[in-house]
Each structure stands twice: as C-alpha cells, then as structure tokens.
Write a structure and sequence with these properties.
Length: 473
C-alpha cells in the first residue's frame, strides 16, 4: 500500500509527535519575539522607507543566499554586481530547488508564506509570478521595516553597534511612537583586535575613538577612559548587552607594566609579535568585560570563524560577502583562563558563549557549568546554534549538548543574527525544532507525561521568558 507523503510545510511542519504539536501550537507559536542579536540597520528602522523590490529586501546583504548562488554556478554579476533586480531574483529562484536539505529552502518558503501569503514553491518556472506578487505587496504600510517587525510580533531587537556610533537612529526610534524596542549592542572588536606586525587599522580606529569620546588618547589609561565614556553613553541610550567577536579566543596574561609598554609601542606604530599582540588584546578584552560587569550588562562571545579566506574575493568585494568559514581553533583553555580571571576578581558578567565549530559543542556546554555562581539562573549560557549551525541538525546538536551537560530549561533561546527584516521565521523554525525535540522525549516516556505542565512552562521560557528576564527587558 502506498502511503501518501506528508504535505510540505503544513501547520505541523517539523512536528512529529502529538506532544510536540501540542507544545508548539499551544505554548510556543504565539509568543512575542525577542531578537537579542541581529545586524539590522537602525537607520533603516528609523527612516522606515518602503523597499524598492523583493530583491532589495531579500537578497541585499544576505551572504547565506550568495554562497548558495555561487555554488550553483551563478556569476557574481547576478549576486553582488550590476544586474537588474529581476535578473538577480531569477537567479535566486533557479538556485532554490538546488537547496533541498539546506535550511535556505525552508527559510525561503517560510518567509514567502508568512510575509506575502504565497504558498507556491519558488523555482525558475514560478519566479516571475512570485516576483510580481511580492513587489505588489511592498507598497502596503505593513511591509516597511517597522511594519514587518510588528507583523512578526517582535517585542525587542538588539542591533550591533560600534562604540564610536552616534546612536542617532536609536534615539530617533526611541522618540517615535514605534512600540518595538530597538536597543544598541556594544561591539568593540576594533578596539580589542591587535595582530602581529602592522596595526595601522587599530591606530586609525583609536584616533576615531578619541574624537568620539572627546579624550586625547596617549596611553593605556586614557584609552580606557575613552572606552569607558562611550560605554556610559551606550548605557544611557538603553544598551544592556555587549557582543565580542573573535576568531581565536585570546589569552596571554601580562603585567600592568607590560600592558602599558605594549600599548605605547602599538600606538607609536611599532610592530608587535604575535604573543605581544595577543597580550594587549587580552588586556583590552578583560577591561571591557569589567565594564560590562560594573553596569550589570550581559556579554556575548562569538568565537571560531576564519574570516575572508578567499583573498581574491576579499580584495574585490570586501568583508561580509560570504567568504568566511568554520575555523578549527582550540579555544577551550583560553576561555577557561579568561573567565577564571574575571570570576576570581568578582567581575564576571552574565555571559553567553557561541561556538561556530560544532565539534566544540560538548566542551562549551560543560564549560558553562564551571562558572555558575547561584546569583542568576543560567548566568553562563551556551549560545544557540549560530551561523553555520542554525539548521535542524545544528540546533538539535546544540540543545542536546546543553541538555546533557547543563540545564536546557534555562536556555535563552533563538536569535536571527541577520541583516534581513524577513528573517523572523527563523524563530518559528527554532520553536518547531525545540517542541519536536522535547515532545518526542515525552511521547517516548523519557520525560513523565504527568510533568507536562512543567514541560509547557519550559518551552514558553526558552522561547520568550528566559530572554526577557536575562536581558532585563
């Protein structure tokens, strides 16, 4: 007897058991979204201009799609080049059927359905029809940046902002009648990243930091004063969260005298050795984390990417264009020593660790247990499946490691890490995967059915309430 296949992306998409379906439909689906880490443009939210076309909204800046298109043999002219909007969209439509089993296939159709009410699958045959239907909707008031955030039930977003940013767009948003909280996130990577050899870019950034802070930076103390002033400015504009992105997590200890000498040398233009650069990076990052703790912020560490590995593409297209990859770095000891230093000083803030290499899942999950201190439930977090891991297997692997080594019930859940205003269905994707994972355990007798009310609360907490409490929102 032939069994009819399950319909594609029906209301029970990704939900395999009765309890999983119950948890999703009755306890996860309707909760607001707290997107506590994204790369949305505050200017775009403040100005709230309509999008020119679905191509601008969907393909502009989306290096996930760009990578897939290149892999499918699409030339750069149709990706980041001067091809017209429909030409680019058509090349993406041709690529979509090649993305079976890639999360892009699911995200594409979840976004078409949730934002545009289009249930057709996207391919070369349906491209023109879908392009025209999407564009016809973009004139609706609800299809602007703010309209889309409201449509998806977003309660708060935290953007990613450099310490020298004026935050003028955040202030404009806060002064408007927009109900969604749009808060800045402190991202001081340029101040804390020193490398072996020439550090011209760092010195240029320090000069800009001095201008923004009104502090003449001449030594380590004035450098810290300038950063501290900007940290205060961000706090006054609603920031409660820091984000630190590193490739290989730094840990080289040094004395205060060494630190001061290294800073003076770097500022004067002297080349540093690899060890010296890491010592100064470590000292800077420690100081920044002390600031985070002093203000009661949470802090995030995204570690493990190998960036801009294609030199030719980097020279022609620049960074963040789809040529980064998973790095194979050993960060375990460095993170342990770094967190231990802050903990021993009583200055370890609430901390989220995001590993890009899935091979690191188990030790990261175990590491979080070493620095819980009873002051905050889930004070040290294992971050959600990030970047190359925000797919079904990656999310399940992250939650399985966290469940095995720590407390899944205290997890602060999903984020988009996206530049697109159509990325919010990723929260729905996560919620379905979470409910399916837990529901299968209940229906297999691994979690007692009589504890279902507690399971329901755990799902609600992971999807919304844990983040709201953790980030003081």
């Amino acid at each position: 007897m032939t069994v009819a296949p399950k319909p594609f992306m029906d209301k029970d998409f990704l939900l395999e058991t009765p309890t999983g379906r119950h948890l999703y439909h009755n306890h996860a689906a309707g909760l607001p979204i707290i997107d506590y880490h994204c790369h949305l443009s505050p200017q775009a939210i403040a100005e709230n201009n309509p999008f020119r076309s679905i191509t601008e909204l969907w393909l502009g800046g989306d290096h996930y799609k760009w990578r897939a298109m290149r892999a499918n043999g699409v030339g750069e002219r149709y990706i980041t080049g001067d091809a017209g909007d429909y030409e680019k969209f058509a090349k993406w439509a041709e690529t979509v059927p090649a993305t079976f089993r890639n999360p892009l296939y699911h995200w594409t159709h979840m976004e078409l359905r949730s934002a545009f009410g289009i249930n057709d699958t996207l391919n070369e045959d349906s491209a023109k029809s879908i392009y025209d239907r999407c564009n016809s909707r973009l004139t609706d008031p609800g299809m602007t940046p703010r309209g889309l955030m409201e449509r998806y039930g977003v309660e708060a977003v935290c953007t990613t902002d450099d310490p020298i940013d004026t935050l003028e767009h955040h202030r404009a948003i806060a002064a408007s009648d927009f109900k969604v909280k749009v808060l800045p996130t402190w991202r001081p990577d340029k101040a804390a990243t020193l490398r072996e050899g020439d550090n011209t870019a760092w010195r240029e950034y320090v000069a800009k930091l001095g201008e923004a802070s009104g502090v003449e930076i001449s030594d380590w103390n004035s450098f810290v004063e300038a950063l501290g002033g900007r940290h205060d400015f961000f706090h006054g504009n609603g920031c409660r969260l820091a984000d630190h992105g590193v490739m290989r997590f730094p840990w080289k200890d040094c004395t205060a005298e060494e630190r001061d000498t290294l800073f003076a040398r770097a500022l004067s233009g002297d080349s540093l050795t690899a060890d010296e650069a890491e010592k100064l990076s470590t000292a800077t990052l420690l100081e920044l984390c002390r600031m985070n703790h002093a203000k009661g912020w949470a802090q995030q560490f995204h570690f493990g990417p190998m960036r801009n590995v294609n030199g030719r593409a980097f020279r022609s297209l620049g960074p963040d264009t789809g040529f980064d990859t998973i790095g194979d770095y050993n960060c375990c000891e460095a993170i342990a020593r770094f967190m231990d230093r802050l903990d021993s000083e009583g200055k370890l803030a609430k901390t989220i660790l995001y590993n890009l290499n899935p091979a690191d899942n188990e030790w990261v999950a175990a590491m979080t247990g070493n620095f819980q201190d009873g002051s905050v439930a889930g004070k040290i977090q294992m971050g959600s499946g990030w970047w190359f891991n925000d797919h079904i297997r990656g999310m399940e692997a992250q939650m399985n490691s966290l469940s095995s080594q720590g407390l899944l019930s205290r997890f602060v859940g999903m984020l988009t890490d996206s530049r697109s205003f159509l990325s919010y269905p990723r929260h729905d994707y996560f919620r379905r995967i979470l409910c399916n994972l837990i529901g299968k355990d209940v229906d297999a007798g691994l979690i007692p059915y009589e504890e279902l009310p507690r399971v329901e609360k755990m799902v609600e907490d992971i999807c919304y309430y844990n983040a709201k409490r953790y980030f003081n929102l």
